[in-house]
Amino acid sequence: MKNVLILGAGQSSPFLISYMLVQADKYDWQVTVADYNYDAACSKVCSHPRGEAVQFDVNDENLRNSLIQKADIVLNFLAPPFQYLIALDCLTNSKSVISASYENSRVGLLNNDAKRKGILILNEMGLDPGIDHMSAMSLIQRIRDKGGYISSFVSYGSGVPAPEVKSNPLNYCITWNPRNVVMAGDVGALYMEQEQMKLLPYEQLFHRTWNVEIEDVGTFEAYPNRDSLVYQELFKL
C-alpha cells in the first residue's frame, strides 16, 4: 500500500482529493488529508475507507515531519508561502513532493539535492501553471519534429467567467481562493516582445491589455503574467 499525504483541504483541493479517493482501491492508496481546519478535512474525506482526516498545524515541526515520514508521496496544497518549508522537510525525509504553486527561487535551489536523493520536488503541476506547460511543450516538440521554426510563442490560461453568476462584479463562480483572482497581477510582469525585454510593475499591468477571441466562448481581455522569461530556456525558445 502507498500512503499519499495531501496537505491542505481548501478550495483548490476538493477535486484532487475526490480523484485520489476514487482511484484508491485500484492503485492501493491510503489517502491522508491534513488541514488546520479538521472539519474541512473531514468533509473532503467523507468517511471514505481509504481516507483519513488529520488536524494539522503547519507551524508544528514535529507533526509535519511525523506525517511526511509516514507518506510515500506528499501533495502540497498549502499556500505559496509554505512551499519552501514543506519542500525542505520532504527533502530532509527523502520524500517526493508535488505542488501546483509557482516554483520560487528558494525551492528551485533544492533541485540538485533532490536529484541526489532520488526524489522529486515537482512544482507548477496544476492548470495554470501546469497543463499549459505540458500542452506548450507538446506543441513545440511537434513543430520541431516536422522541421518547423518557432518565431513567437504566446500562451493563455484562465478561469472562465460565468455570465449567469451575479454574486460578484467579475461574474466568477470561484472554486479556488477568491483572493488569488484579485491578487493575480500583484508581482507585475516580465516578458519579451519584438526582441525587447518588457518589465511592467503592478500599477501599470492592467493598462496593457488586449482582446483575445476564443471560439465558442467569447472575447477576453488578456494581460502579461509574472516572469515569462524563466520559460525561455526551459522551452528552448
TrEMBL record:
One of its GO terms (cellular component) is cytoplasm. GO terms for molecular function: saccharopine dehydrogenase (NADP+, L-glutamate-forming) activity. InterPro entries: AASS (IPR051168), NAD(P)-bd_dom_sf (IPR036291), Sacchrp_dh-like_C (IPR032095), Sacchrp_dh_NADP-bd (IPR005097). Residues 4-121 form the Saccharopine dehydrogenase NADP binding domain. Keywords: Oxidoreductase. One of its GO terms (biological process) is lysine biosynthetic process via aminoadipic acid. Coiled coil: none annotated. The keyword Oxidoreductase applies. The keyword Plastid does not apply. Its EC number is 1.5.1.10. It holds the Pfam family Sacchrp_dh_C. Gene3D superfamilies: Dihydrodipicolinate Reductase, domain 2, NAD(P)-binding Rossmann-like Domain. Residues 126-237 form the Saccharopine dehydrogenase-like C-terminal domain. Transmembrane segments: none annotated. This is Saccharopine dehydrogenase [NADP, L-glutamate-forming].
